Amino acid sequence: MKKSLLIFLIALCTKSIAQTKATGNVVEYFGKEKITTTAEGTVLHDFTAGFTLATDKRSGTLFNGQDAVAWQYSIGKFVNPNKQKGDWHPIKVDSVGVFSGKEMRSAFLFTEYKASKSQIVLLETTGGTRTYINGFPHEGDHYDFGYTLIPFKLHKGINEFVYTKGRFGRVKSKIIVPSKSIQFTKRDMTLPDVINGEKNEKWASVRVINATEKDLKNLEITAKLSSGETANYATDNIMPLFVRKVKFKVPDAKANYSGELTIELTLTDKSGKVIDKTKFPIQQRSATIHHERTFLSKVDNSVQYYSIAPALGTGQKALILSVHGASVEARNQARAYKQKDWAHIVAATNRRPFGFNWEDWGRIDALEVLAEAKKVFNTIPEQTYLTGHSMGGHGTWFLGTTYPDKFAAIAPCASYPDISTYGSDKGDEMHDIFKAYGSIKRSANSGRIKSLVQNLKQSGVYILHGDADSTVPISQVREMRQILGTFHPNFCYYEYPGGEHWYGDHSVDWFPIFEFFKRQTIPANKEVKEIDFHTATPAVSATDYWLKLQQQIRPFDFSNINVKLDKQQITVKTENVSIMEIDLPSLHLNGEITININDQTLKIAADKKAILALKETKWGFIDAINTTEKYAERQGGFKFAFNNNVVFVYATGGSASEREWYLNRARFDAETFLYKGNGSIDVVADSEFSLEKYKDRNVVLYGNASNNRAWKLLLESSPIQIDNQQIKVGDKVLKGNDLAAYFVLPRKDSKTALVGVVAGTSEKGMKATWANNYISGITGFPDVMIFKADLLLNGLPNMQVSGFFDNNWSAKTLEFNP
């Protein structure tokens, strides 16, 4: 990605120079005093001097939990460099007020501010992966989007700020006194287009700053178009000292119009008192041209958008899902395509321009957009296709191999198959010597494209790549061509002569791709006579036509099911499968069916769904899936807790430091999910949580049995129990005040919901949970990780327990590491 990254960096540098204008900064003079303002308030302080501390440049991809400053804070050994410089080196901003330099790409930056009084302010940063404010972690601005605003309480006296690893070697930071304690900010809105002739309100979202220490509840947003139409919506609650992206509804416009409208938002409390107002433009368009639409995601009930290049003409059309490259917005992706007369082209967002590499929540976004577009445009089901460019080329390989029955054909452009073997920052080999790394690597197996590539046998594949591409080497797809050549009956390969990474819109809008697509269709179940299905986990990929994997023998290890249908007989060969289903009714057979599975013969009526289960060495039929065990709709993997309209529940018991830490820890995850995933998470105190109020929703619990009241409701029978002195894992006990844990278990009062836990013993242990690298599309997180605080410094040698619960969710199969 070197050349495209360079172009992007140039754009970012230009943006930085113009940042004052972009964020509405104004310089005013009152006598001799210079006052700088932003749209959100007055600049109290611009940081111009600080210290840097070099870090290890090799961070790894699947595991990267080390952080020297986090370790120092967790064990109480952080020393302000002004008092003891040690390995810290002085640095000052450059001529445009930015801390910059090559060393900044792999260094911590420290700054401080001496406040004359205590007050609530905002920290605005650009650059920097994460930020510590007085020892508490917060999200940074590592993609340099320029909209990070963190409300916090400025203490009287010295306040410390540490910024971790500026992604592009640049950090700029300032403190803002907000003009209002509660206000809208126009940075980072998600808006649909108002569509002519469509009489339904559209979802949108805007960020609201809560610069108070109280929860904001019972808020309402009224949206009014300049054409006069209005819509009201009782919007989301906002936790203390937080900026949340909240929902509102955009009214439909009564008159047909093409162009810009103004929309005015009014925020009111439950009494009807006006808290704030704002205005901004919104587009009204015809549905027959390129436009944007929104929907509510099932991940967190947030507003997400997708972009459309609608088909020309009337009648039912095909659907092409297009997935974009790194830093590309979905709206720009869609506009790279000329409209077709036979297919709608739909560009998903990945929840952000970088997002999650089309894995994890990016994968979910692609599937949600696919389902939404099929419904909105009533497309021809068997004519569904997939393509993408660069990171989206990887997304095409990933989604195509993961969901082989959803696409008739795929077309990766300028692509690489596997992100763990692409790029310069590959450091995972350094972890291979540690036992604990095995489960971490396994938990990321769903992204190992080359191990799943056999799934593509049933889909058409067209590979397009510029032969002069210096960003993604041509070797990436030449290897895939060689692999496909050993088994695939239906693929095309073209190297564009002299083509760089991007050589114009025909880098994606390539006529032969669409001609290839036209020749491919998804067969009906009854037409599929053989399936060779590979998956790493049914939590990600469970189905292939009339076949479904429900449970594995070894979670997150590769599974394979090969089935062949010959008249009234089905022959099955399996690897790493304990429960599977065959949807016999969809095959439209009659009479009795013989199933030969791993050389065992069973018989069943053709009008029944066959659920086959392995007990010891024998296969047999079962009547229903036992939902208290692991099955396709509820598996492990800690990341999967962050789905299913998740709610974060923080501890309010224990000491003052525990209460402050766990409140901030939940806030930090919500900040990160907003930044990386355009998220909007409900964050509530344990005292407000109830099973009924948050029924069937995933829960992430911050705190342990000693301080979080929701622990007893959700985890009283958990095989892992944590208090301030110890962690019990089954019948084993780990003692210490420096133990931390991430784990996931089923929610006992639900057939589908999960409970994730972020907890530690005592102060060192709870602060060792600092890293939230699980909010990433690359990292590997098994069901359980229990570690000492020293892991933040030393890495995997300090992992104590890791691995996967067994299919009964017991701790018997967890690994205790030396």
UniProtKB/TrEMBL annotation:
Family matches, as InterPro entries: AB_hydrolase_fold, Peptidase_S9_cat, Plant_Biomass_Hydrol_Est
UniProt keyword Hydrolase present: yes
Signal sequence range: 1-18
Keywords for the protein's UniProt record, in alphabetical order: Hydrolase, Signal
Domain named Peptidase S9 prolyl oligopeptidase catalytic: residues: 357-517
Pfam family of the protein (one): Peptidase_S9
UniProt keyword Hydrolase, yes or no: yes
GO molecular function: hydrolase activity
Protein name: Alpha/beta hydrolase
Species for this entry: Flavobacterium hibernum
Source organism phylogeny: Bacteria, Pseudomonadati, Bacteroidota, Flavobacteriia, Flavobacteriales
